[in-house]
Amino acid sequence: MAQGYRIGVIAPYLDGEYYGRLLPHIHEAVKERNSELFAIQVADDELGVVALEEPVSFDLVDAWILILPSASAAFLEMLANGEKPFVCIGFPSPYPRGGSVLVSNRESMKEAVLHLIDHGHRGIAFIGHTQQYDLHERYNGYLDALAERGIEADERLAVRAADNLLESGKRAAERLLATGVPFSAVAAGTDLNALGAIDYLNSRGYSVPDDFAVIGYDDIHQAGLNYPPLTTVGQPFREMGRKAVSKAFDLIAGRKPEAAETFVPAGLVVRKSCGCEESRSLASKEGLDFHMNNLSKMRIALHNVTVNNYKMTQGLIVATKDEKIHISKLFWSVFHWGCLALWEEDGKGGRRLVVRQTFSKRGDRVPPAGLEVPLERFPPVEYLPPGAGPGGEEFVVLHPVRSELQNWGYIALVGPLDPMDDFVANDLSRHSFTILAVALERELLFKQVSSMAEKLEIVSRTTNDGIWDWDLTTDKIEWTIRAHHMMSGATERLLDTPQAFVDLVHPDDQLRLRLEFMRPFQKDRPIQVELRFRTTDGQHLWLFLAGDILYDESGMPIRIIGSITDVTEKKTNEERITQLAYQDALTGLPNRLRFKDQLRQAMAERDLDGGRLAVLMIDLDRFKIVNDTLGHQSGDCLLQRAAHMLRDCVGEDDIIARLGGDEFIVLLKRIEGVGDVSSVTKKMLDALAQPFILEGQSFHLSASIGASLYPTECAEAEANPDTLIRDADLAMYHTKENGGNRFEIYEPALSSKRVERFNMENGLRYAQERGELTLHFQPQISLSTGKVYGAETLLRWNAPGGETIQPGEFIPLAEETGLIVPIGQWVLEQACAECKRWIRAGMPQLVISVNISALQFEQDDFPDLVRRVLERTGIEPYNLCLEITEHTAVQNMEHSVKMLHQLIDIGVKIAIDDFGIGQSSLLWLKKLPAHIVKIDPAFILNMIEDSDDDAIAKAVIVMSHNLGLSVTAEGVETEQQLQRLQQLQCDRIQGFYTGRPMTSDQFIAYFLEIHSWASS
């Protein structure tokens, strides 16, 4: 026989005439197997808790017994997915791994209803809480009996009770009589429902069983003691408990039961309420003794309730004398050992269960306070009293401690079974759990109040505020020393009369002060007002006055207590902040806020005089090059000089403001027409075209300028400052897209282009997941061997509707919006995957080249991303070449050198793309760790006709070779270009002459064809 196991019982309650009669038989069967019992009571009527939600004791318990659905769905799922066997009593297991012990509810109720039919009843009603499994089965038994005797069921006679208790039986009987449907007997789902129905029928003048026969189910103690004694069905508690334990031990031992569900028969107990002539239970001396014994136990139980109520009240008085309540002072009936563990924060955003209180009435060991215990291993079994050990007479009770405020933790108690628990529900003992939770809540609130009081005490000693107290009954004001000191610079000193204080206030603020104190006072509205006071040196002292009103019991105001704070410095700072809020700190020009105010005022003036105005949006072209090359300090200097020049180009009444970065905006308050705008913008472009000398270098600036006019036929019907600024911005943006260094006036068509851009951006965000992005590959040919060296990856977007959007249209948009980062990662992964496919097709030495955007290159974890892609796709690092533009490489040399070294350490190749079109020197190549230089197609296009382009291509090739770099020429379209590049000893070429961009399958076919030709 298995020994030494720990059986856990989960039940809503552990006492009363169902749970209290079932638990002793479970405990008895566990003891016989030299094992231990852990019982977890989960129901809390006050909070509406009905199921166990947390895995308390989960690691300690070897098998679980669930009495009725007392565990949450999450806990049941954890049992189903774990290794711990479990057995359900009173409901079928929701999972195949669990077993069930069920009462033959359907058959036994059928037998009871047939008994009523045999008495001659045909109008038989049913009342019960049919949402519960076993009650639903009893209802089915009721229907089975009617069907077997050919009686048609009337749905009006089936009344759903709210629960299984007495009051619900009364309400159900009331509704049953209200239907007006004739009936002569009632079958109730529980005894308490039946007894409640009898009480209601008696209160309405009916007799049981003369007018109505009534039967119940459960055979609780009150059933036999009621008048008339209740005919019922006896619950086989002993068989249920012992079979559940037996099934649990079979599952622990790995023995598979013959059936997942075990049914225990229940027998009819016939008494007088069904109409039988005499109570069979009293027909013998043994039956009479049984009932007299039950009466005696009931009397003792009621007496104990009275005594326990007194004990509990006394314990509560003692426990609440101190600030903290101790669990040893609460009423725990027969329990002699206890341990309370509370949830506490662990400092890492989680929580831990920590022992905080313990007691032992017999001097047994208790866990030390502060001991941290995992929930799954609570309570700490090494400290449990010997009586709760294997085969012991005692058991462990676990109960969650909750209140409306929070889930506090768990309490564990040890003691023997109370023999009275099967007669009445020990509500007093349950109250201790509620009192404990409320006490913990009180302690927390007390700590918060104490902490707040301490803080207020410190504040009152250290604050710089003055305190005042106005007694409304005497009309006198008391001021603290700090208040007098604060007002020492005023023209008069503080006095105790309200009028004297008003006289000190600046005349312009006195009305505001009087309004703040105007009667009747408004409750829940504190007094708050800022006031100026005259000082002896002719300045102003600003004070913030705050206060609140106190009322007597009749609701009359009696005092106003408050504070005064010197806010002079704050007001001075506010004035300074207001100034800064309307001024650009770098250039001294007005900012956007100030500009909009001026524009709004100018629009109103033009509305009155019928004149016109213009708004110019100015964006400096290529300003970013200055910042990237010389740094932000030089860039700021350039912005200041540009602001000065632009200011000189407009009239004295016109406004120029800086919006931020390199953007300026101008308001021409009065214009005659477009000619005035053209004249001003020409001055601006000419001024900016003059060379700027910064750090010994000469820079030439240009600007993109957009203009909007007001009023104009093209303007919106209800133009406002925002629409004028927006329209000017659209015109400027269109100017920049067309090369810049010019100006353009807004037209409605530009808004349509903005919408198109928005639609393109929105479509691009979903292009990847919709499979609209594809890759093409342009071959790269070695000039020395004529073989395929590799291919450059080119991205294509096949938009919905069959439209192909060129990279030149969507790549800049992707870079501007940041979408280039996820798109670039997808391109890298797909390109490497295709390369792996080529290798498997017999092309192992090919190099796949992938362009990397500036945003990708700026990410510090980019090398890690490359490593992960290589690992996932399975290609070697030497099969991959990463191409970065010359501009990206020189933007931040320190970052570029660091990043390129990390990538080279991985083993991939690095190519500098578009070389020659930037402002960098060939000597910069010495600083950049790279393998390949790619000559920009602009120099290849005219190299045959243009000697300068030919010289540049030659210089790049020679210098690159001297630095140990290979060279690839892009954009080769003619045989003459190919031959000239061979003469210049260029290493590789790519372009339409040797192969247009193609799909992966086409590239494989292309390679095989070239390979066959080169090998022949």
UniProtKB/TrEMBL annotation:
Record domain PAC: where: 527-579
CDD domains (alphabetical): EAL, GGDEF, PAS, PBP1_LacI_sugar_binding-like
Keywords: DNA-binding, Transcription, Transcription regulation
One Pfam family named in its UniProt record: GGDEF
InterPro entries hit by this protein: Biofilm_reg_signaling, EAL_dom, EAL_sf, GGDEF_dom, LacI/GalR-like_sensor, Nucleotide_cyclase, PAC, PAS
Domain EAL: 757-1011
Xref: SUPFAM superfamilies: EAL domain-like (SSF141868), Nucleotide cyclase (SSF55073), Periplasmic binding protein-like I (SSF53822), PYP-like sensor domain (PAS domain) (SSF55785)
Domain GGDEF: 611-748
NCBIfam families: GGDEF, sensory_box
UniProt protein name: EAL domain-containing protein
Organism in which the protein naturally occurs: Cohnella suwonensis
